[in-house]
Each structure stands twice: as structure tokens, then as C-alpha cells.
Specification:
alpha/beta, seven-stranded parallel β-sheet, six-stranded parallel β-sheet, 17 helices, 15% strand
């Protein structure tokens, strides 16, 4: 079988990391299959994929399409998806999209896939427009569609061109089924991680050095938020929670991540986040490391990993990564993120946007090292049972085979 994957971004956000894990799992399970990637921009995703001996091609987006996010928004709850429709209809921007579809169609004819797997909203639509007649289209949905009215209409319109959809959680699957009025087959497939890389043992990053801070005193509780600078990732909640901790908790907070995407207006700048931490009175206790390629090493340097998304999280890959590394995790309990933990056993939870509850959870873990260790052990066991990336091939191969058979 020949499968071509389409990714709008060459960066390493959650959707792109999950794609790498899929490619690694599938290439190990089916070395006789031919896998390849076409991506809309250059970036670190390319080198990661090529290191798996999988062919990767950059077919650069025209600038208007590049600056437009998957749905024109940085949050599952924001609605700017009309921008996609307006872009296609406008000239000369619309003409650039038409030219891109022509180039993509030509590239796909050369690759001659049996299955076309698209990994982002832009590529779901572009894939529907450029899919070779002999190829089956599989959408991989990583976000809630219903929050984007125009994208909802587009996916409904082109669902007949799609043989199946993969959703990264039951929550996202239910949302897509509702959007498509039950008109397509949707398979929930949780993301997974490389459990050898994301392990309790291994190197640790010097977060203080990365953040240009003096070394924290021995015994300092290290609390980290690993996320892109998306406006719905809850940085303000994190800073507010840190500001509410009592003086008895000697901590240092770390913001690990960067503004990865080109989407206009979807992300905070580093300057905005620094100003925000200053306004909340914690700038002297917070470090900004920037993007860290070795996520596992950064996680192992922390005592507590917090997840603070203010909107329902479709999945929350960093949650699984942190549990796999044997770290205590506090999760914003909504959406897919609430599905992938057993609250109280392998993670603690807080209501999205509730800084006071988050502060209480951090304080609880700061004062109870036995609880931290218990959560860490249970989290590692949980990921071994449910989130080993070898499972991805087992889940996906039947979906691909069924999709391909529909065109034969």
C-alpha cells in the first residue's frame, strides 16, 4: 500500500508530533508499505520524518494561505474560519490557492497513493480538492469542528469525498459525527508516545540556563507549563495560580514553548507573556525557555507539569508525555484531556480557567511528596498500558485497508 500524508505545518506542535509517531509505528509494523509526506512549509518536522527513512517533500503554501491557520483561529472556541472561504473567493489570493491545488494535484499524481491521510483543516479541504480519483481520503481530525461554522460547512460539503475520519479522542469523534449528521465513518484513535524516549530515566535539561536565570536554590519546586503560545493554552491561568501560592511554597515556574505557527492573531508574543507575568507579580519566579526540541529532557527536569487550557482540549499530548516521564500532572479537565487520565489515581484535575483550584492542586503536591510519587508511578503504568505508540499501527492498518478497498 502507498500512503501519502499531507501536513500544513512543518513545525512540531501536537498534530505534527502525533504524525511522527504514526509514521514510526506504521513503518515498523509494515516496512513493505510506501509512506511519504507532503508539507506546506519547511521546518523541523521534515528532518524528523526523514530520519525515519520516509520521503518528505515541501510544497510551500502561498503566503496568504500560510498565514491562515487551520481554521483561521488559535483556539478551538474562536470563529474566524470564514477567512478560509473568503481567501478562496478573493483575487488574487484565491488564484494563488487554485494554483496551489493544481501543483498539489500534480505532486499526488506522481506519488500515486492508495490512501491520502490529511493532518490539518487546511489539508482536509485541499486534499478533498486535489485527491486523485484512485485514492481514498482519510481525514485526521485533531480539533473540534463545531466551533468553526465555516469549516463545519466545508467538511459537510466535502465529506462524500472522504472515505473515513480519524479523531484523536472520543470527544472529538462525537463532535465530528454531530457536524456530519452521522454521514461518515469516524474512528477514535488516541495519540501515543515513544515510551523509550519519554521515560522517567534519562537526561534532564538545565531549564534555568535555558531561561537565562540563576540556578534555583536546592529544594525549589519546579512547576512547568509546556505549550505553544496559543491564546487558549492558559498562560494567564498559570501565572495567576503561581501568584496565589503561599510563601511556604518555594517554587520556580517555567514556560516551555514558543509561538510556533504563522497564523495571524492566534498566539501571544513572548513580550506579551513576560508582561503578563509581571502584572501578576511572578516575573521574578518565572522563566521562559523558548522552544525545547528534547521535550522529554525538559519534562524530567520538573517536579510538576501543569496543563491549563481554557477551552476543552481535543487530546493533550503533553499530558501523556509527562505521565510517561513519571511526573505528577495537573490537568484542565475538559474534552479529550479528561478522557485520558484517571483523576486522583494518575493525575489531579482542575476546572478550565480556575486559577484558585490550580493553585490548591500545586500546593497539595508541593506539601505531599508521597502523592507526587504515587501519581508519577501510576501515570507511567497507565501510559505503558494505553499509549505505547506501537498500538497506532494496530489501530490504523484496518482503517487504511478498509478505506483503500472502497476505491477498488
Amino acid at each position: 500500500m502507498k500512503i501519502v500524508y499531507l501536513s500544513p505545518s512543518g513545525q512540531l506542535g501536537g498534530a505534527e508530533k502525533s504524525l511522527i509517531d504514526i509514521l514510526a509505528s506504521l513503518s515498523a509494523a509494515r516496512p513493505d508499505w510506501k509512506l511519504s509526506l507532503v508539507v506546506g512549509e519547511d521546518g523541523p518536522l521534515l528532518s524528523k520524518v526523514k530520519s525515519l527513512n520516509i520521503a518528505a517533500t515541501v510544497l510551500p503554501f502561498p503566503q496568504p494561505l500560510s498565514r491562515l491557520g487551520d481554521a483561521g483561529a488559535g483556539s478551538p472556541g474562536q470563529n474566524q474560519s470564514g477567512a478560509f472561504s473568503m481567501l478562496v473567493k478573493s483575487a488574487p489570493a484565491g488564484l494563488s490557492v487554485v494554483k496551489y491545488v493544481t501543483r498539489l494535484r500534480r505532486e499526488l499524481r506522481k506519488l500515486d497513493p492508495d490512501v491520502l491521510h490529511t493532518n490539518g483543516f487546511k489539508m482536509h479541504i485541499l486534499g478533498a480538492w486535489s485527491r486523485p480519483r484512485e485514492a481514498s481520503l482519510v481525514w485526521h481530525i485533531h480539533d473540534y469542528v463545531s466551533a468553526r461554522p465555516v469549516m463545519t460547512r466545508l467538511l459537510r460539503r466535502y465529506r462524500s469525498r472522504c472515505s473515513a475520519a480519524i479523531a484523536n479522542s472520543n470527544s472529538v469523534a462525537d463532535d465530528l459525527r454531530a457536524v456530519c449528521n452521522g454521514g461518515m465513518k469516524v474512528h477514535p484513535v488516541y495519540n501515543a508516545v515513544d515510551l523509550d524516549r519519554f521515560s522517567p530515566t534519562g537526561s534532564k535539561s538545565n531549564l534555568d540556563m535555558l531561561a537565562s536565570l540563576p540556578q534555583a536554590p536546592p529544594g525549589t519546586l519546579r512547576v512547568g507549563l509546556l505549550a505553544t503560545f496559543g491564546r487558549w493554552k492558559g498562560h494567564a491561568v498559570f501565572f495567576k495560580a503561581l501568584s496565589l501560592l503561599p510563601p511556604s511554597v518555594q517554587f520556580r515556574g517555567y514556560v516551555i514553548g514558543a509561538a510556533l505557527y504563522k497564523t495571524a492573531g492566534s498566539q501571544y508574543s513572548l513580550e506579551e507573556l513576560r508582561k503578563m507575568s509581571s502584572q501578576m507579580g511572578v516575573s521574578h519566579k518565572v522563566g521562559f525557555t523558548g522552544f525545547v526540541d528534547d521535550t522529554a529532557s525538559a519534562i524530567r527536569s520538573l517536579d510538576i507539569v501543569v496543563h491549563t487550557s481554557t477551552e476543552p482540549e481535543p487530546f493533550g499530548l503533553v499530558i501523556v508525555e509527562a505521565m510517561a516521564c513519571g511526573r505528577a500532572v495537573i490537568v484542565s479537565r475538559a474534552g479529550g484531556a479528561a478522557e485520558i487520565i484517571d483523576e486522583g489515581t494518575n493525575a489531579l484535575g482542575h476546572h478550565p480557567g480556575d486559577a484558585e483550584e490550580l493553585a490548591d492542586r500545586i500546593k497539595q503536591l508541593a506539601e505531599d511528596i508521597d502523592l507526587r510519587k504515587s501519581l508519577a508511578r501510576a501515570g507511567r503504568t497507565w501510559t505503558e498500558q494505553h499509549f505505547n505508540r506501537a498500538r497506532l499501527a494496530t489501530d490504523l492498518i484496518p482503517i487504511y485497508c478498509e478505506a483503500a478497498s472502497l476505491n477498488n
